[in-house]
Design a protein that fits this description.
Elements: E1 2-3, H1 20-34, E2 39-40, E3 43-45, E4 51-55, H2 58-71, H3 81-94, H4 99-106, H5 111-122
Helix pairs in contact: 3-5
Length: about 130
């Protein structure tokens, strides 16, 4: 059985219509390339890029985000693993996604946390200087 994280099995994850085939195709390609047929979808890698069977931990995700930010010319000090989650929430809010739908994807336990990102995204909407700045 494949597990997406250390959390409970059987969580339902919604995908936008038309994206299901692409998501399944990419997930299948990843599992095939990594040689994963059982265990966690995202595993730590040992020498030679061989999956260890252990789930990726947050520290590893943070290191990867910083490494790839640097590779594309961004300052890694400005990015973290949290940037991915916060960026998703901010973009979703800017595109008028409903709070309950955002929380459904991010799995935030406290919607008040998400509201902070939404306020940040909305400060750019209908900006008074948009037509001349």
């Amino acid at each position: 059985m494949i597990r997406a994280s250390g959390g409970p099995l059987g969580q339902r994850i919604a995908l936008p219509e038309g994206k299901i085939v692409r998501a399944i195709s990419r997930l299948s390609a990843w599992l095939d390339a990594a040689g994963i047929s059982d265990g966690y979808v995202f595993q730590t890698m040992g020498k030679g890029g061989v999956p260890t069977g252990r789930p990726v931990n947050p520290g590893e995700v943070a290191r990867l985000v910083k490494r790839y930010a640097a590779k594309i010319g961004l300052d890694p000090a400005d990015y973290s693993a949290h940037s991915l989650r916060a960026g998703f929430v901010t973009s979703a809010a800017a595109h008028r996604a409903k709070l309950d739908k955002i929380v459904e994807v991010t799995r935030h336990r406290n919607p008040a946390t998400v509201l902070g990102y939404i306020r940040d995204a909305e400060c750019f909407a209908d900006h008074a200087g948009a037509s001349f700045l």
